[in-house]
Specification:
It is a multi-pass membrane protein. It is found in: Endomembrane system. It comes from Falsiruegeria mediterranea M17. By secondary structure, the chain is of the alpha+beta class. It has two domains: about 10-225 and about 235-480, Growth Hormone, Chain: A, CATH 1.20.1250; about 485-715, Muramoyl-pentapeptide Carboxypeptidase, domain 2 (2-Layer Sandwich). It has 26 helices and 13 strands. The strands form five sheets. The chain has a four-stranded mixed sheet. The chain has a three-stranded mixed sheet with strand order 4-5-7, covered by helices on one side. It has a two-stranded antiparallel sheet with strand order 1-2. α1 (about 5-30) packs antiparallel against α8 (about 200-220) and α12 runs antiparallel to α13.
């Protein structure tokens, strides 16, 4: 067999970084991590937890996953590295760990949006993650055999940059072709590739399959061009590996400089891993960004990290590693402290300015320095220290000891999850990382580094420009939720359910009330607001049959119910968002054969007199009986009607008055009365309104009337009081997390 050239060996070794980086870029940080966090939060929300507690629990689950896998990696790495040294054969191990990588990442396709199998998927993620990190141990132990000793630093740094660029390319592909936005389209306006169902989040879930396929494809150059070095002695077994590991530990401890370096490295690298593992999850659960927004931000931060890794290498070469490490650590401590003090509504108690999403913009400013200085730390790797040991056959153990502090586990994520779970504050999860960074802020003098990362030249210019543009741009205004839901013309193909509250929510599986039924007609069809929960449609059918028995009525004219998927409306109501509100016209429905055009032009009738203090001559006993029938239905939570109508019903009712409790006086509501139903049984994501006060409520209604007739003097305004704030329009992130899948459903 012809000898493989050094150039090919180097490129083959680099391609491992290109092939494996998507596990960290796509799965850990920017795509799967945030997706899993949203799925887990929705799952815990369905169990009865409130939104904040559900998000904190989701972050805790992710924390423990990273912690457990990190412990496996950290404590298994020294033994694995020792075995690599004594056996002298690394490629078979790399092949085995590659199978773990591919199987684990590929299985993530099955992570269901309802969270029904999230524990199995966490196990799959952990399997692939352990495989990726263990493979990296063996890859790094091959480094001294890839090229000449004086080129080791250059090869390592360039491979690091090459891998980062591969992660960037894979992230761009996912965003452009697969990850769906709330409108079901990808970042460039396409449907998810390969006919994937946006409603089932298949575009986002494809990240696991892409990561697996990417690895299989781009590991081909590695397996073609990289070979194990010829063994220098007889291969050993487990017992010999343990003995050699013990000797290596003693040798490290005997060198105070290296021992101190490994100790401090373990602390600050673990803090970095905690931050990287939680960056996307934090943006999802605290800032409430969607995955596409996180991904775009990820491209900016990856470019920032790459260019500043290069600058860090230059500084390392000029000043030595210790100043680079210490300056980077202090910046990271500042980042951690600031993250603790901010969420999407404030930063250290200061609300955002008008028209911008300041905390989200600040997160961009914070995360980019975090990535920059984190990459500076990562670029100062102990390659030269490892190379200074003889014989070369001990490199596996030394790399594995270094990995004890870089296994993405140990204290960082574990402390994060302890904070997240114990106090329910998601942003506080970053606080322990700051402490761990500080604990590792005093490495001993390592001397002048003899290398600096040699990044791809093109990346230097591109990354600087991209970062400048990204940091200069103000926070882009998110589309308003009413625009997203107002654009939907059909219901979602999901199980009927209501999410959130009547004035801040959405609904899945809504049913369209037929335009004309035996005892009703839907009005103002051009609005497309005749959609309701199946319970709502059944209520209308039942009540309209009762109304048809009243003299002069053939049924009911039905006004607005809800939009096809609920949510805020472009005009009109603040409520009617979860398919459980119904406007019923006061006009007697004596003609159920009106055309669509007639139903657009005809108007209801007003029943009020004297600004709502009294009913007028249009009020009839039939109105009383129809509203009474609606209130007596067990599904009814309350009915809104103008005060004069409630007082009139109180005066006229001679029988059982208990139903009057549900009839509530309210402004307007003289052309129609508004029925609000209770949340359907087993609708765990639906929030009921508090029940009306006890009693028939007639005295309260009379107070309303008295205040209309003789308005009380206005309360003097406090001149020192701040001006009232204008009501903020909701964006999608303000609504329950389930509303994303409601919008994305076909």
């Amino acid at each position: 067999m012809a000898e493989i050239s050094t150039r090919k060996r180097v490129w083959g070794w680099w391609f491992f970084d290109w092939a494996s980086q998507p596990y960290h870029t796509l799965l850990v940080t920017f795509i799967f991590g945030p997706y899993f966090a949203s799925v887990a939060a929705e799952h815990f929300l369905s169990t009865g937890l409130d939104t904040q507690a559900a998000a904190a629990r989701a972050q805790t689950v992710w924390s423990w996953c990273l912690t457990i896998t990190g412990l496996i990696i950290g404590f298994g790495a020294p033994l694995i590295g020792a075995l690599a040294d004594v056996t002298g054969r690394r490629i078979p191990w790399i092949f085995g760990f590659s199978i773990m990588y591919v199987v684990g990442s590929g299985l993530l396709w099955y992570t269901m949006p309802d969270g029904s199998n999230m524990w199995w998927m966490l196990s799959a993620f952990g399997l692939g993650f352990v495989g990726a990190e263990y493979a990296l141990i063996f890859i790094n132990s091959q480094l001294p055999d890839i090229g000449e000793e004086e080129d080791v630093g250059k090869i390592s740094g360039s491979g690091f940059a090459f891998g980062y660029f591969g992660g960037l390319v894979s992230l761009a592909i996912m965003l452009a072709l697969f990850v769906e936005q709330p409108n079901g389209k990808t970042l460039i306006g396409l449907d998810p590739a390969f006919g994937l169902d946006a409603g089932a989040r298949e575009g986002t879930r494809f990240v696991g399959l892409l990561t697996a396929a990417w690895y299989v494809l781009f590991m081909i150059p590695y397996f073609m061009w990289v070979r194990d070095a010829d063994p220098t002695g007889k291969p050993g077994g487990l017992s010999q590996a343990l003995k050699m590991l013990g000797k290596a530990v003693k040798r490290v401890l005997s060198r105070s400089s290296l021992a101190a370096y490994l100790g401090s490295s373990m602390l600050y690298r673990d803090a970095l891993n905690g931050l990287y593992g939680f960056g996307g999850v934090y943006a999802t659960l605290v800032l409430e960004w969607n995955i596409v927004k996180i991904g775009v931000f990820g491209i900016i931060s990856v470019l920032a990290a790459a260019v500043f890794a290069w600058l860090g290498g230059k500084a390392d070469k000029k000043y030595g590693p210790k100043p680079v490490i210490k300056s980077s650590i202090w910046v990271l401590i500042l980042v951690c402290a600031t993250i603790v003090g901010m969420d999407r509504t404030q930063i250290f108690g200061i609300p955002p300015g008008r028209g911008i999403n300041a905390p989200g913009s600040d997160f961009l400013w914070l995360w980019c320095p975090d990535r920059w200085h984190g990459r500076n730390l990562a670029s100062v790797q102990p390659v030269d220290d490892g190379a200074s040991f003889r014989p070369r056959s001990t490199h596996g153990k030394l790399w594995s000891l270094w990995f004890v502090g870089s296994g993405d586990g140990l204290p960082g994520p574990g402390l994060d999850c302890d904070h997240d779970h114990s106090d329910g504050q998601r942003a506080l999860g970053g606080f322990p990382c700051g402490g761990i960074v500080y604990s590792g802020s005093d490495p001993v003098d390592l001397g002048k580094s003899r290398r600096g990362p040699d990044l791809v030249r093109m990346l230097r210019v591109v990354s600087v420009i991209a970062c400048a543009i990204g940091l200069a741009l103000p926070a882009v205004a998110e589309p308003l939720a009413k625009q997203l839901f107002g654009a939907m013309d059909t219901g979602s193909r999901q199980r009927p359910s209501a999410f959130g509250s009547y004035s801040k929510g959405c609904a899945s599986g809504l049913v369209q009330l037929p335009e004309t039924g035996p005892t009703w007609q839907a009005m103002r069809l051009s609005r497309n607001r005749n959609w309701g929960h199946p319970e709502t449609i059944d209520f209308i059918e039942k009540l309209s049959r009762s109304a048809a028995k009243q003299r002069g009525w053939s049924g009911l004219y039905i006004g607005d119910i809800s939009q096809p998927r609920g949510g805020p409306m472009l005009t009109g109501h603040r409520s009617h968002q979860i398919g459980l509100d119904i406007d019923i016209w006061m006009l007697p429905a004596n003609n159920l054969r009106m055309s669509r055009q007639q139903r657009e032009s005809i108007s209801s009738i007003s029943l009020r007199r004297n600004k709502g203090a009294f009913v007028n001559r249009n009020w009839t006993r039939q109105h009383h009986e129809i509203i009474k029938a609606a209130a007596k239905d067990k599904r009814t939570a309350r009915i809104f009607v103008f005060p004069g109508a409630k007082v009139q019903m109180c005066n006229d009712e001679k029988g059982n008055r208990s139903y009057l409790r549900k009839i509530r006086p309210w402004y307007g509501h003289h052309y129609h009365f508004h029925v609000r139903l209770k949340c359907p049984r087993n609708a765990k994501g639906c929030v009921n309104q508090d029940p009306p006060p006890k009693g028939d409520g007639c005295a309260e209604a009379q107070t309303w009337v008295n205040n209309i007739i003789s308005p009380p003097p206005p309360t003097p305004r406090d001149p020192n009081a701040p001006p009232p704030k204008k009501r903020r329009e909701y964006v999608l992130a303000d609504l329950p997390s389930q509303c994303v899948s409601v919008l994305q459903s076909q």
